[in-house]
Write a structure and sequence with these properties.
Elements: H1 9-35, H2 43-55, E1 58-59, H3 60-67, H4 71-83, E2 87-91, E3 99-103, H5 105-126, H6 131-145, H7 149-154
Antiparallel strand pairs: 1-3, 2-3
């Protein structure tokens, strides 16, 4: 659905692109949710387990940065994962002020159970794009996602 906003060509094109990007993301996430690819986990919980699985123990702040969620949201997500026995918090031996979040054996098993099906569903969903199109989309998304405040100030 194109924008009904009337503005400059650049504004209309930008808003139309943003709407398409948002609708695409929401539609993809909705289809994955219908397929129940991550079981009883929320997407935030899944992201935390995946980050800890692939990157190892981290502080809650580091996890928050990796999964692009606020610190307050991350506290609740980690609390729930800890309640369910999927992660544990542990004080750093060298600096007792630092608390690291560790994946438990149950957390590893949980992720290993759902990850293959989730990846298979993603492969199927993205198969509408050729390999080249997937690489282009990935590069464009990375470029847009990595844009910094400094980059924005240069364009003003």
């Amino acid at each position: 659905m194109p924008t009904h906003f009337t503005g400059s060509r650049a504004e209309m094109r930008t808003l139309d692109t943003f709407i398409k990007l948002t609708r695409c993301t929401n539609a993809l996430l909705s289809r994955l949710a219908e397929r129940n690819t991550i079981g009883d986990l929320t997407y935030s919980q899944f992201a935390v387990l995946e980050a800890l699985y692939h990157l190892g123990p981290m502080t809650a702040g580091e996890v928050s940065q990796k999964v692009l969620k606020s610190g307050s949201n991350m506290t609740l997500v980690i609390d729930n994962l800890e309640r369910d026995g999927l992660v544990r918090r542990e004080r750093d031996a060298q600096d007792r002020r630092v608390i690291r979040v560790h994946l438990t054996e149950a957390g590893s098993h949980k992720l290993e159970d759902v990850l293959p099906g989730h990846i298979a569903a993603l492969v199927e969903e993205l198969s509408v794009l050729s390999a080249s199109e997937q690489e282009t989309l990935g590069a464009l998304c990375k470029k847009l996602g990595m844009r910094t405040i400094q980059d924005r100030s240069k364009t003003k």
